Every structure is written in structure tokens, then in C-alpha cells.
Amino acid sequence: MLFNSQIFLFVFLPFTLAGWYYLNYKKHDRLAQGYLTGMSLWFYAYLNLQFLWTMLVSCLAGYVFCRLVLQTTSEKKRKAVFYAGCLFHLGALGYFKYTGFFLENINAVFHTQLPMLRILLPVGISFYTFQQLSYLIDCYKGKAGLCSFLDYLFFIVYFPQILQGPILVHEELIPQLHEKERRRFDPDRFYAGISRFVIGLSKKALLADTLAKAVGFGYDQVERLDSASALFLAVGYLLELYFDFSGYCDMAVGLGKMVGIEIPENFDAPFRSLSVREFWRRWHITLGRFFTKYVYIPLGGSRKGKLRTICNTMIVFLLSGLWHGADWTFVFWGFLHGIGVAASDLTSSFKESVRKVLTFSYVCLAFVFFRASSISEGFLVIGKIFSFRWNGFLLEIAKALDLSEIYVVTKALSMKAPGVLSILSLFLLLLFVSLCLIFLIGPGIRPKKGTAGKKKGHAVLLAVLFVWSVLSLTGVSTFLYFDF
Questions:
Q1: Rounded to two decimals, what is the model's pTM?
Q2: Is 284 part of the annotated catalytic residue set?
């Protein structure tokens, strides 16, 4: 089920909130938790029932491994169970996500003809696998204790974060289930949740989905790009991805506040970063935290000299690239970011404004490979940027933006003055991108707890944004990170 769909907004969410608060009002704490868990399972199964059984088997096995690790007294057996659990989770992720990738590369390298398997990738498997791994590792290290299966299942399937994160650790969620005050309705907290959700929905429906039309049109015809249109694709896709994924995370945080069980922030103004290293402290925060805690630090972190630090950084980003997708484009994207992080100190003496521009530019170019269908296509787009040629293709991309809000105006111009329509489309494209960039570097519009509900103007703005976003849902699109 998608957050940006009518069934979620007008059926699932009202029933979920009503049942949750009613059962808590009646002091049926465990029943309320079971109800929210059941609704989360429905939320997940709505996409594909087969995905549900795969996830439930994974959760059951994951819980058994954690329990055995905690209850086994022999250190040798504990280690064996721990490694078996890690192998199970990573093996399941590898089977579903990377089997085709490895078979394809084996055939290419060894000139074999191994048959390609058609394996349906369960939505969210990358996220719930990492959450289960984090809990298993913490159990093995003595940093997590035994919980009930209901608590464990809730930790994995909690609907605001099951599909795209943020990636949680046990201490962020499970203790909240046993805090009585979180089960009581709090008007300020609920309003803050609505506010974050509507802002996230607007970022997705009004910004990301609009950019997606123009960016998709350009990437479908890469060979026609000139310098200006290629530059737009680089900047436009990064903006699309940011508004899409951060919009989802805003909605997830908002939904958490609505039910009183909060989840961590996943973005912190990444485009204000002064280096690629800082960018990754602000972008997809929970993924970076996972790799830092469970990969980078165990490898030695920055404690074993500069060369080892660079090697550890590269390992983390290569794995991060592979985690995002089974394709060499993602591995190369991770490689570029690893190089960027390792070289971050080279610009430390520059002015802040210069560092921001350099960081944004480097990140934009690196993310070209995240979107490109191949590494060669990525280099083609970058080559087009620096070709310094103009063929007018940007005008066609601008028309693909297709703002429905001014349909009457564009329709009239297309019949009476088609030449003016091209100029208007280009103006609107540049204006739209400029507004998106201003939004990124602005002060933000998140309400402070306890004050947002007192501002009538803020409530009116939210209502307008919500109605506008809902009206744009006639062409509902999936979230980009569903593919990862």
C-alpha cells in the first residue's frame, strides 16, 4: 500500500488510528499492539500477498536466532548460531536481490549460458533484513535483551517504516511500546504528525512526481541531450530523488507521531553540506549509521592509520552501492561517493559558499550513475554537460513537465500561439527548479511542538497542500526507493 493513495488516506489510516486509540483508551495494551501489528501486515500484504509470507518466515527465523543467541551458554555454540543467523539473513537478501546479477556476470566473464532465474524481489527486504541483522548483532554483543515475539514482529513490520525505512535499531522502538503516555492521545503531537505527513505528501505528489515527468522524458532520449538539458537531468534527478525519499520519510515520521510511536529523522538538510563526508551525515542518516556501526567500526574505522581509513571508507560505500541495487551503476556510484568522502579534506581551506557549490556539483554528477541504465550512459550524460552545445532539446523537456494546474492556459496557447508555449514551458521549468532549490536551502517549515496548532494560517496552508496533493493523485506513482 502506498502512502500517496486514496485507500491509505481514506480507509487504512482512519481505521488504524481509530482502532489504536480506542483499544488503548479501554486499557487493552497488548490487544492494541496486536491490532497495530495486524494493520501493518495488511499494509504490507496489500502490494503482494506472496511478499507477506516471505517476510513472516524471515521474522520467525530471525526471532529464533536471536533467542538462541541469548539463551545459549556455550560461547562456541553462540558464535555458531550467530553466524548461522547472519548467513540466513544475508543469504535470503542475496537470493532475492542478487541472484540474477551474479548469474549475468558469471555468464559474461566465463562465457557460460547459465539460465537466468526470474525471482520477484519482495518490497522492503533490504530494509527489514538490515533491521533484523542489527538486532541479532546487538543480541550477540550483549547490547539487546530478549523480547516477546509480538514486540519483535512489531519492530520489523511497523507500517510507517517497513517499505523504505528509516532503518531502526531496537532501542529506538521497542521501549516505546511500554511507555503508557505514548498510548494517550496528545493533540499537539497529533497535529505535528499531520503537519509532517502533509509536508511529505506535498513533496512527493507536487514536487517529485512533477520533476519525474521531465527527468524521465530526458533519460528516455539521452542521445538527444545538449549541455543545458543534460545539466537539467543531473540536477533534476537529484531533486526528484530527494523530494521523493525525504517526502516518504517525512510521511513516516508524521505517521509515527500520529500514533505516538516515533521513528528517527533520516534527512538533515543535506544540500547545506560543506563536503561529501558531511553530505552523508545528513543524507539517509539511518543507512549511514548502520554501515558505520556494523561495518566501518568493526573494520577498524579511522583507528588504524590514514590508508586503512580510506580502505574502510571505500568498502562501506561499495557495499552501500551494492545494497541499493544489483547493478554495476550502483557500485560505481558508491565508489564515487567513497572517493568524495576520502577526499573531503582537500577543500577544507575553501570559502563555505565555494565548498557548498563544489559538494552539490560533485554529488549531482555522482547521482547521474544512480539513475543511468549503464555506466556508459552515465558518462554520456556527463559528457553532454561539458559539450557546451545547444540544440533546443531543453524546450521539449520543459513541455514534458506538463503542469496540470495551468492546463487551460497551455491548451489555449497550443492552439493560438504555439511559439509562445515553448517559451512559457521553459520559463516554468526554470521557475520550478529554482523554487525547489530555494526550498532545499531555506529555513524549513517544520512546526515546533506545542505551537503549530495555535497558528491558524499554518493549518490553512496544510489544508490547501493536502487537497492539492490529493487532487494530483489521479496518476499515483510508486516511490523510487521501492526498487532498492
A1: 0.90
A2: no
